Fold:
Amino acid sequence: MRVPLRWLGEYVDLPEDVSLEHVHAALVSVGFEEEAEHTFDLTGPIVVGRVMERLPEPQSNGKTINWCQVDVGESEPRGIVCGAHNFDVGDLVVVTLPGAVLPGPFPIAARKTYGHISDGMIASARELGLSEDHEGILRLADLGLDAPVGHDAIALLGLDDAAVEINVTPDRGYALSIRGVAREYAHATGATFTDPATTVTATHGDGFPVLIDDAAPIRGRVGATTFLTRTVRGIDATRPTPPWMRARLRLAGVRSISLPVDITNYVMLELGQPLHGYDLAKVQGGLTVRRASPGEHLTTLDGTDRTLDPQDLVIADDAGPVGLAGVMGGARTEMGAGTTDVLIEAARFEQVSIARTARRHKLGSEASRRFERGVDPLVAEPAASRAVQLLVELAGGTADELGSTVVDDAPPTPIVLHMDRAASVMGVDYSAAEILGTLRAIGAEVAESGPVLTITPPSWRPDLVDDVSLVEEIARIVGYGRIPSVLPVAPPGRGLSPSQRAARRVSNALAAVGLTEVVTAPFVSAVTAAQFPGIDPSGGPSVALANPLDRALPLLRRSGLPGLVEAVRRNVGRGLTDVAVYETARVFLPPAGAELGTADIPQGGALPSAATLAAMNASLPAQPRHVTVVLAGDRVLKQPGLAAQPWGIGDALDIARAIVWAVGNAELSVRQTVHPSFHPGRAAVLAIGETEIGVAGELLPSLTSELDLPRVVAALEIDLDALVAATPEALTVTPIVSFPAATQDLSLVVDDSVPAGALLDVIKTGAGDLLEYARLVDDYRGAGVNEGQKSLTFALRFRAADRTLTAAEASAARDTAVRRAGERFGATLRD
Structure:
């Protein structure tokens, strides 16, 4: 909200030396955030001048300029070159003399042009920042002004004013007016406030037919509860808007259009009540407030033909809609230069209905901003009367008795407040005088009954609905400085959840081994969703967004791989070919068989049934936290005496083990699998016991080629929530054994189809408790091994906790493992 200071000073006492900083500080103290300061950004000398002589001079470029002699109240006229032609000798104009600075900034100096020394400039309204009109220079006669030559034109045109801009929160719509801001300034400073709504002489109207016919109210509330009309006849719509009004509108951020429209905007800014003016001659019959019919159209004042929704509240005459209620009027009844009779509308519309209409049509306006925040129901009549008054005074009209008054607003609901409630909520001992004084100052009616107060909020404060909101007002008006700053003490026994602790440990572990954490967007295309279906490739379709930010990315990810792969692709494309990144983020998995969407949700004010709510909750996608890793390029860079070592599936599996180790006391099992995102034969399913938690391997070569990535890209994805659930919370500490270990290698020949991980599991089980460590170290296929078979070599380490093992004991444990492997997979010792 922009607040011109002189306008503010009409309704609250301001200091003589008031500054923008002072007003901002006062308003900040009562809860309004400072936004900006606004001035006309010009300095003098800018004076009234009279054209004494005007000589047209055609130029070689086809343009005709005027060489003028202008009296500016000095001993001699000044010679000024002017390119405009909408003035003549004897006209009073605005002259910017050398040394003046116009908005831009545009400094004025005497300069040679078109063969003359132009000693100043005759200004237009646009050059002065008064309006966007640049059709010619500004003639004072066009504004109905007269002043002696040499008079200060800045003060004459009201260009010496300034405005503060504040941020008004949605619950305080009353402050979107000079009336509301003046009251708040009075709260902050104790200055005397005069309510402009009480200084207007009321006008009355009767005989104009108005009907409120809302067949589909929003949330059970009728679309309009107040609807007043007043009539002014015989106006001259071509009269200029007075400079003081134009300047105030400009500072307030509103464009000057025409005198009748400017008056309605001026009253809206002054009192907070949006108004609309109709050309009465264009209105057919009376006005009806109703919901739009299916397929109805309305051309609004911006020239756009709009298809109306059945939930849109419209104002209609006998020929159809003439306006979107509370948002924008219709072009058919627009006031124009030929308008002589004006019908003024002042109404109060239901907040939710107006907000939905404005957003539905993407048509936010100054009127809708105020209606959707709540308008004082008692200000409609003063606002309509104020508009009538200005149309009579400035446009030469005559107030007419034709009009209407429909009011069906319920009075504010009283609130019970205990005197000690403010202290218990805010931690401040407020005196009875402070509490009562504050409540009365904000306009509330207070009835005392001992320590219990019954408060009736003022009509302009729909946000005051309970005792806590009243306590907030007491704290705000008395001063936030009274509230002590006390740091809360964290309750014992609280902290991170197991899932949060696991996510932090995993992130720390991955960063410790040299990976870089990234954050990617959760949106993917249909093609990408098919390329990366996630840990479970048979999990069904991805969740589709009803209103995606980017139409090319309409789906929510099922996997963390798309974002990471795109990040790697971007880095590789910029020459960073060795990349190792990870992300811990949510994925979105729709429940099987659930219907997504909002088609079955009741519209308007109907409350969804328990069954509908249950169905909606059931249709929400599961959002497990996944940790995803992508590795491309070289793990070890080429250097003297050492060849480059690229990332591969082994590295992905090692990182997977590090993730499991970071979460807790669990053993990761690895089994070969087939996955549409991974290379056949180089993909593994990761599991804790029987619980599958993820997948790891090298991406499909055709996929990496399509994405312009290196041929070998290792990746893994683990469902962190599933890993945490499958991992015991209590960590088991393995004691350090001081007895020496016995190491042996074991080479077994098995069929190609036997997974190495499955064979390793059998060896671990068969070797028994003496086996401390076992790992695959070689996979050989070649001479000495039959076709269709392979030789797998495992490094084994045996150790006892209470003695030194003998070679015979270690060999016996190994032989038991070999026997079990033979029974299970037909494995034989390699010669």
Observations:
- The longest strand covers residues 46-58.
- The chain has a mean pLDDT of 89.
